[in-house]
Structures are given as structure tokens and as C-alpha cells.
Design brief:
By secondary structure, this protein is of the alpha/beta class. It has seven helices and ten strands. The chain has one domain: Rossmann fold (3-Layer(aba) Sandwich), CATH 3.40.50.300. The chain has helices at residues 40-47, 70-80, 96-106, 114-123, 139-151, 169-185, 197-203; strands at 2-10, 16-18, 22-24, 29-33, 55-60, 63-64, 81-84, 157-161, 189-193, 209-212. It is globular and about 45 Å long. It binds adenosine-5'-diphosphate and magnesium ion. Adenosine-5'-diphosphate binds at residues 11, 14, 17, 34, 36-42.
Length: 213
């Protein structure tokens, strides 16, 4: 269960951004809507403990995320949250497979076994690009690699920021089905921020909770 209450954030010299309260059950789907600049990415960053709220509380599966210290936050995120960021942050000096392996290194674990990484890519239909550099991928392939990376450690919470922004209709459909299907199969909670009509239409069948900022 994810619960937040009185959540607010202020960028340096910016106004206080306030977010409506919400409760989201385990395995739930939240569609976060709102015009550009309404605070969608900021709320996602708060949910992923990438930012600390100025006010309010955020409770994820019994953990008071708002009161974690910086190191605890990083450890909590690495363990529990899969982030599909708006910009993919794939390193172009590494192969696709090594980009995935970075997840293990970042979490200070033993390096992840190549077979498991390949299996993760294969599940998303992109095993054949494992040896390529990110700039050699189509937008849809890059998004699927980023999704494989987000799901690698079996997160209970998956956060996607405008996952279809740069994709054509076919690629958008594929990525959305994979995103929704794979989080649902794992019983993970999914939060998707978007102002893309196609996302709302596609995810409507899954009866999402909707929050409009
Ligand atoms: P959205 O994702 O809905 O487009 P954002 O969460 O990115 O909205 O931004 C919300 C508001 O915060 C906007 O007014 C934006 O200009 C402002 N903002 C976002 N990031 C920063 C930042 N790093 N510094 C100052 N203001 C920011
Ligand atoms: Mg945004």
C-alpha cells in the first residue's frame, strides 16, 4: 500500500507545489495526468525518494519514505523501486548488456550474471540488441531496454515518466502493454505519468486510479 498525505515540494526560488492525497493498493495502477509543468515528474521523484518533500508524508509498504536519510533513501530505492525515467540515461560508452549490469554495481551487489541479464532482455523481446550501443537502438528498443533495467531487481513499485513521449503508435502500444503486463504479472504497483491520450486510452481497460494535477 502506498499512502501520501499533505505532500509538497519547493524548488529553490520556486512556488510550493502541493499534491492531492492518495492511497494506492498493492498491485494498483495510477495514471498521473496533468499539463506540462503541473508537477508530474516532481511527484514521481518524490515517490522514488529522489527528492525529499518539504511537507507531508509518504508511506510505501509501511516504510516512512519521507523521513529516510540520504543513504537509506538510495538503498530503499535500489531495492524497491524501478524507475523508467523520461530521459533514458543509458550510457553510450557501454553495450546494452553492460548498461543492465550497472544496475547490480549501483546496488553494490556482486555483478549480475550475464545469463540473467540476457533473459531479462529476452523477456522484452530485445535480446538481439544486447551487444549494441544505445545509439544503435530504435526509440522503442531503447525504451524496452530501459524497462528491462527498471524491472531487473523485482521492484514492488514501478514508476514511468511519459513512457511514450518519443514513440510512434506501434512502439507506444508495445511498450505500454509490456509495462502494464509485466508489472501486473509481478503484482507490482505501477505509476505512469503522462499527458499522452494514447496512454490513457490503452490503460483505460486496466481501470487505473487517475490523479489529475
Ligand atoms: P511536469 O512533469 O508535469 O511537466 P514538473 O514536475 O517537471 O512538471 O515541474 C513542475 C514545476 O516545477 C514547473 O513549474 C517547473 O518549471 C518547475 N521545476 C521543475 N524542475 C525544476 C527545477 N529543477 N528547478 C526549478 N523549478 C523546477
Ligand atoms: Mg515531466
Amino acid at each position: 500500500m502506498i499512502v501520501w498525505e499533505g505532500l509538497a515540494y519547493r524548488y529553490a526560488r520556486g512556488p510550493l507545489l502541493r499534491f492531492p492525497d492518495l492511497q494506492l493498493p498493492d498491485g494498483g495502477l495510477l495514471l498521473l495526468r496533468g499539463a506540462s509543468g503541473s508537477g508530474k515528474s516532481t511527484l514521481l521523484a518524490l515517490l522514488a525518494a529522489l527528492l525529499t518533500p518539504a511537507e507531508g508524508r509518504l508511506d510505501v509498504d509501511g516504510v516512512a519514505v519521507h523521513s529516510l536519510g540520504p543513504r537509506e533513501r538510495d538503498a530503499w530505492r535500489a531495492r524497491h523501486v524501478g524507475v523508467l525515467p523520461q530521459r533514458l540515461h543509458l550510457s553510450d560508452s557501454l553495450s546494452v548488456l553492460d548498461n543492465l549490469a550497472l544496475v547490480g554495481w549501483a546496488a553494490a551487489e556482486r555483478s549480475m550474471d550475464r545469463e540473467a541479464l540476457l533473459a531479462a532482455l529476452d523477456q522484452l523481446g530485445v535480446a538481439e540488441v544486447a551487444g549494441r550501443r544505445p545509439h544503435e537502438l530504435s526509440g522503442g528498443q531503447a525504451q524496452r531496454v530501459a524497462l528491462a533495467r527498471a524491472l531487473l531487481r523485482g521492484p514492488r513499485l514501478v514508476i514511468a515518466d511519459e513512457p511514450t513521449a518519443s514513440l510512434d503508435d506501434d512502439a507506444a502500444q508495445t511498450v505500454l502493454s509490456l509495462l502494464q503486463g509485466m508489472t501486473q504479472a509481478r503484482g507490482a504497483t505501477l505509476v505512469v505519468a503522462t499527458h499522452d491520450r494514447r496512454v490513457m486510452d490503452t490503460l483505460a481497460a486496466a481501470s487505473p486510479v487517475e490523479l489529475c494535477l
